């Protein structure tokens, strides 16, 4: 699904996706060649009205975990370091 260019270094969103699944799909466009990529999210409060709770929490900074841990925890059980 979507494009598959290997040298994408930045994925820029203007407004958050509605849910974590969409976010993961979209940011996954970057770094297809195994090199680092960065996802940047620009939004205003009104953009969050149609988003699910997880995206709302992430965008509002309510979750201080690593983004990768936060996203993966939506799909499977993850052991957190204590």
TrEMBL record:
Catalytic activity, EC: 5.6.2.4
Reactions it catalyzes: Couples ATP hydrolysis with the unwinding of duplex DNA by translocating in the 3'-5' direction
A GO BP entry: double-strand break repair via homologous recombination
PROSITE patterns referenced in this protein's UniProt entry, alphabetically: HELICASE_CTER (PS51194)
Tree of life domain: Eukaryota
Any single GO CC term annotated in Swiss-Prot or TrEMBL for this entry: chromosome
Keyword field: DNA-binding, Isomerase
One Gene Ontology MF term: DNA binding
Ranges where the Helicase C-terminal domain occurs: 1-72
Record keyword Cell membrane present: no
Similarity field: Belongs to the helicase family. RecQ subfamily.
Protein name: DNA 3'-5' helicase
């Amino acid at each position: 699904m979507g494009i598959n260019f290997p040298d994408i270094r930045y994925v820029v969103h203007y407004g958050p996706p509605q849910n974590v699944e969409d976010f993961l799909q979209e940011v996954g466009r970057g770094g297809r060649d195994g090199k680092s990529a960065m996802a940047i999210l620009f939004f205003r409060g009104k953009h969050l009205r149609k988003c699910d709770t997880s995206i709302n929490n992430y965008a509002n900074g309510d979750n201080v975990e690593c983004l990768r841990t936060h996203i993966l925890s939506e799909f499977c059980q993850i052991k957190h370091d204590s």
